[in-house]
Design brief:
The protein is α/β, with parallel strands linked by helices. The protein contains 11 helices and 17 strands.
Length: 355
């Protein structure tokens, strides 16, 4: 059931440099049909919230250079709800800006914040969990984050340690956060998944506008000051000009550091709906359909011979033949071809010249 005070914020400002050459600074991965399904990751994100938030209550925060792509891919989102960052400042300023802006027009707003480049396999379960969290934050001053049940000792994600001994009296699926943990090394990750109280930090947050604005005032007062001082101009023609002037004053800091790791009333909702943040070619291989030899092929007319566990993304080529590759990435975009061992994929930023 849609609630008129429920708002969705999609953060779509990242550059996705680990997915080069498919993803470039001019058109990062959230705007690309990474999965070969006819819709970009941004469009898939928007789609999975249908029925949770009214299109009139959807907000996209992106970099000024991507405004035309966002309008083209999400024509349903009101133009004045595409907020433009003049420069990159990580997630805390981005979330502060949109929270003050939403609160200025809906004092009772209840907000879910989602990255634009994740994938979810079970959308019904996803919507059930989001709805349950929104109902919880509507009645409390809680900040809720989603924790994904880990199915492998992943070193690429941060972790949340939950206090599972006691669920919230209002909602039995929501628990207090014991602590946030940085991305671990492999030994630590193996320890984490032996315990059932560690979850992947999915970077999806649910809170009321007043709760998050108050949290910024307490824990990140210098960021709060900037957006508080702009209250008279939200929704006016002066807004963009003032944001362009003041936004660079904000420290570049993630919302995890600025708020989550310091605030008191932080809760986690453990969930399992086939989630991945699609951060790397390796994660795309893991999440997509594979042939009998473990190859994932995205594109038309790709023939594989004596090849195993490769990810091939060649959507602009009419015919591709690959022989004798094991554990490789083959990706082509606009005349740039990458052939790289999956075990060396952390060097892609360096190859692209954009890292």
């Amino acid at each position: 059931m849609e609630n008129t005070n429920s708002h969705l914020v999609i953060m779509a400002g990242g550059v996705g440099s680990r997915f080069w050459p498919m993803s470039t600074t001019d058109k990062p991965k959230q705007f690309i049909d990474v999965l070969g399904v006819g819709r970009s990751l941004l469009q898939l994100t928007y789609q999975r919230f249908q029925g949770v938030c009214n299109p009139q209550n959807v907000w996209v925060v992106t970099n000024a250079r991507y405004v035309d792509i966002v309008k083209e891919q999400l024509p349903e989102v009101p133009e004045n709800q595409i907020l433009l960052e003049p420069c990159r400042r990580n997630t805390a300023p981005c979330i502060a800006y949109v929270s003050w802006r939403i609160k200025s027009q809906d004092n009772k707003a209840n907000i879910v914040v989602s990255p634009s480049d994740h994938i979810v396999m079970d959308e019904n379960e996803f919507r059930r969990i989001i709805q349950l969290c929104l109902n919880f934050t509507r009645e409390t001053d809680a900040i809720v984050t989603l924790g994904m049940k880990p199915n492998r000792p992943e070193t690429g994600y941060g972790y949340i340690k939950a206090d599972l001994s006691l669920s919230s009296p209002r909602q039995k699926e929501i628990f207090r956060v014991d602590s946030f943990r940085e991305k671990p090394d492999l030994q630590t990750a193996i320890q984490y998944i032996k315990n059932n109280d560690y979850f992947w930090n999915a970077g999806i947050f649910i809170w009321s506008a007043s709760t998050i604005v108050n949290a910024f005032r307490v824990y990140a007062p210098s960021i709060a000051k900037v957006f508080e001082s702009l209250r008279p101009i939200y929704g006016t023609p002066q807004e963009q000009e003032e944001i362009n002037r003041r936004y660079p004053e904000c420290a570049s800091i993630s919302v995890d550091y600025a708020i989550m790791e310091r605030a008191e009333e932080i809760f986690v909702c453990p969930a399992e709906f086939g989630w991945s943040d699609l951060g790397t070619w390796g994660s795309l291989l893991m999440q997509t359909k594979k042939d009998l030899y473990g190859n994932s092929l995205i594109g038309e007319n790709i023939e594989m011979y004596d090849s195993h566990n490769c990810i091939v993304h060649t959507t602009q080529e009419s015919h591709v033949v690959i022989q004798g590759l094991d554990n490789y990435i083959v990706a082509e975009k606009d005349g740039t071809l990458l052939i790289c061992s999956l075990s060396e994929e952390q060097r892609i930023k360096q190859f692209s010249g954009e890292g």
